[in-house]
């Protein structure tokens, strides 16, 4: 009896990977073994960088808050310490947005915590 191979499933699996490799350069987009490795590596980077993106945004928010606080003679750590001491429940994302887009509101917060 001849060997039975499920070509329908294997073809679908390969087709799925080739579809994910769309836009890649050279053989990475259409040769199965090369595309499989490239897609696997790409998905690994995507998973890792979803975590890194959160770190990068937190870092950006800290820089913006620091720049805003220094305009009023406070460092970032002094400002955040005062914010927590005064029980102001604003996260870094909101504080950074205020510092950048609404300087008068940020100044009001600085005035409140610097007393």
Describe this structure in words.
The protein is mostly helical. Helix content is 73%, strand content 0%. α2 packs across α4 and α4 packs across α5. The mean pLDDT is 96.
Oligomeric state of the chains in view: single chain
Poorly predicted runs: none
CATH topology: c-terminal domain of poly(a) binding protein
Report the order of strands and helices: HHHHH
How much helicity do the residues have? over 70%
CATH class: Mainly Alpha
Shape: rod-shaped
Please tally the β strands and state the result. Answer: 0
Distance between the termini: 89 Å
Radius of gyration: 26 Å
Mean pLDDT: 96
CATH superfamily: Ribosomal protein L20, C-terminal domain
Helix/strand-derived category reads: mainly alpha
Major β-sheet annotation: none
CATH architectural category: Orthogonal Bundle
Strand content: under 5%
What's the arrangement of secondary structure elements?
Elements: H1 7-20, H2 32-70, H3 76-85, H4 92-101, H5 103-113
Write a compact overview of the structure shown:
This protein has 115 residues and is mainly alpha-helical. The chain contains five helices and no strands.
């Amino acid at each position: 009896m001849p060997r039975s191979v499920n070509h329908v499933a294997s073809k679908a699996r390969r087709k799925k990977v080739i579809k994910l490799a769309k836009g890649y350069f050279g053989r990475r987009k259409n040769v199965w073994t090369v595309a499989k490795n490239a897609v696997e590596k790409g998905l690994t980077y995507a998973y890792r960088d979803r975590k890194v993106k959160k770190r990068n945004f937190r870092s950006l928010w800290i820089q913006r808050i620091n720049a805003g606080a220094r305009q009023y003679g406070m460092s970032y750590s002094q400002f955040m310490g005062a914010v927590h001491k005064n029980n102001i429940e604003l996260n870094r994302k909101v504080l950074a947005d205020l510092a950048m887009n609404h300087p008068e509101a940020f100044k009001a917060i600085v005035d409140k915590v610097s007393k």
